[in-house]
């Protein structure tokens, strides 16, 4: 994976270069790429080929590298489960792990300081948090009143995690500390409600109200264990930042009343990460799990204030480590909040301005909110697996655009942001599930298993507009069903996937340039109304297997001569790729040019 951003100057050169290329169609602009490949940061590599520990012996080498190179995983209490997941993910080419996280929650308390759930019941997770025979809330208020009798705990928050933290979590040790119990370690933080987090630790001069944050952690740190495993496999981890409390009236937005406290908790956690992990190559960055919809009104969403605040903290505490976010798309025409590709591009611009380093929009095919189709397929009936979401209709009736349209527009917006000085990458988060299915995968809900053919199609539609392809998620969507999607990839990983084709001349010859995966010894097939032509790359063309800095890992570029004048102007041409084993692309490219 490449972790360095393009220089603005290079982006400008590419825009000029791209202007002389004849494009596939008026709506199919290839993303600009640098004229000269730039060096990237050294890739992490497995330390050894196999490791033996208390969980057994496991391999650390790739077995079936696929185009998707990063996955979300859910927290697990058993460290052997972590290890098994990383081994499976790395075996199919994964080099990036993104963790699902937990949320900061505002909670009511009883008269004696016992923590309640949102429904008013006692929360058993915090029953064991006691000091000197008092609840942790009572003990905190006692200590505050000792400093100044007018002090009090105004608001109480809780945050659960399977991580543990060091002393760098605490700013004022006389008021803040860890509380050990047999099963959990609680961390008591006393903060200012506005998020200022006063470094003077003066609790006596002026009576005031403080926020109490009780973090329910573990005696051992799961993040350290995960980073250690990532070192073994040569992978990078994005741990989740605390999720913002939601607005009770609009749950898709962060609650502005609690952003100050969230900022303080984020700062403390990242201070601790900075002391313990800043130099760890396996720490790729951090993930903010609060999802927002990509829209042209996104700039008004208070959640962007969360992103901006956290970006500033990351810059201070973990310089060089980006924030990753994964907003979602909704292209449906029959809902009031469906957005066009250009509206989504405006949302991308708003996100880039917050300083986040990686925007990985969900392709939203798994939820049925966007379809995978080509421009000449607009009048075709939607995939039957989408009907539970959009009904029986054509793609044009159901959606404002296809996944490809959205990633293309966001790539154009990204170029503008790079030129304006915002360092941001665009990743594709392809959803490895269906809206429903005969083989449900999620512990809750109806989301079902998909297949590799459909996942290949999602990779194709992301095109060369993105810098990396990741997927939500490994457990349980990649491992459920018979055969599981993981097993399908292992059996079929050598199949070529073409993602983009453009007309490009070479040495005074007209031709076609195709980009994609697994092109060794490939033959490019061009099909149009006048016939079909098969062009063997080793015989008549050339193959570059070293992708440019801006392209996903493993992407190759092939060129073959082809006389485009024989194709009627405006006609849609199908372009596929097959390899000597007989495997061919399951999703041909649909290309139209002016000849």
TrEMBL record:
Gene3D superfamilies linked to this entry: Glycosidases
Pfam families: DUF4434
Domain DUF4434, chain residue ranges per copy: 217-478
Location of the region described as Disordered in the Swiss-Prot/TrEMBL record: 28-48
Name of protein: DUF4434 domain-containing protein
Species name: Nonomuraea mesophila
